[in-house]
Amino acid sequence: MSDLFFLPAWPLPLQALPWYALLLLAAAIAGEALQRLLRLPRVLGWIVAGVVLGPHASGALGAQDLAGLRGVLEVAIGMVLFELGQRVDLQWLRRNPWLLAASLLECGLSFGAMFVLLLALDAPPLLAAVAAAIGVATAPAVILVVVRDLRAQGQVTERALLLTALNNIVAFLSVSMLLAWLAHEYAGGWRIALGHPLYLITGSLALAGALAGVTLALLQLLGRRDEAQFISAVALVVLAVWAAGALKLSVTLTLLGYGTLLRAIDRRRHFVSLDFGRVGRIFVMLLFAITAASLDLRLLPAGALAGATLVAARYLGKTLGIFAFARPSGMTLRKASLVSLGLMPMSGLAVVLVSQTAELYPKIGVSLATVVVSATVMLELLGPLVAHFALIKAGDAAEDAGR
Questions:
Q1: How is the chain split into domains, by residue range?
Q2: Distance between CA atoms of 349 and 83, rounded to whole angstroms?
Q3: What fold does the segment set 36-393 form as a domain?
Q4: Smallest Cα–Cα separation from 72: which of 127, 20, 112?
Q5: Number of H helices and number of E strands within the chain?
Q6: Which of 132, 227, 274, 325 could form a disulfide with 114 if both were Cys (CB 3.0 to 4.6 A apart)?
């Protein structure tokens, strides 16, 4: 035995470094720097930190490191989706059905505009349809973070949150239906083509309903103590993410459905409020940083034209859909224009949906990623700025927000 056995081995084993801690630290520093120096949303700093540390920039984080953080990413997405689902007020939709009509129209028009223009760029019809369906979704994490940072409240804020939840549901259902055609074309056989999307949709909703029932029963036992509810919510969201993954169901639809159904059946409001607090903020920061680090920027030049087309068509469709039902739903055209700006962000879930589709059908994975990732890169940076601008112009932000 060496006399210096108590000294550490050299070089240090960097493969054991907790990369999520390094990523979190870099994201926190970058976010605060941008907010304090330039008065920009902190989320932009989180994104920049992820891109810089990612395998396609500095390479500090390799692809294998990011793969090891996939569990953290899924839990972060789950927490965001559950909180967003809690924002869906089914009673509000019943009182004002024009909101649902506006949501369906903005989804339909944005899908149609993206689909037609991608076809004009010679994209294969099936690829164009899947890319357009994925593009319908607004990034829920961006909206929630911007709303929380600005402490925004008001008509534009609430409608942007509601429409974000609804268009994420529509996007997932659309992609699930398109999986049937993908299965028929690439896997062959109608049993797979019909069975897979049917299992995804019904299974995810059934799991969401079961989780909502269990949660309500648990809340009745625990009472209204904030600490007990917080611990229960975090634990149940993590279990929901695990269960959806283990059963090969959709984390997106399961968690959105979970939050929505829990609010709908909790008529006596046993669930006082959902605020994941500092723990939730850590997960959200990691969500943005990991997603940004995962973006393959090498795809941007090849898909720049198609990506820009997707962004423009998406905005046009959403704006026309919201404008069409602005007056009947009780909103001025000025506020309708701000809501449409609030729906511009597109990030984490788009990348997740692309990844899931590419895993199932690798033959179209590269082409799909080229189009969607290009659009996502553009809106990763522009989306938070646009949403931030919209909520401030609407007068929904707190007066001392950002100080």
A1: 36-393
A2: 15
A3: Na+/H+ antiporter like fold (1.20.1530)
A4: 20
A5: 17, 0
A6: 132
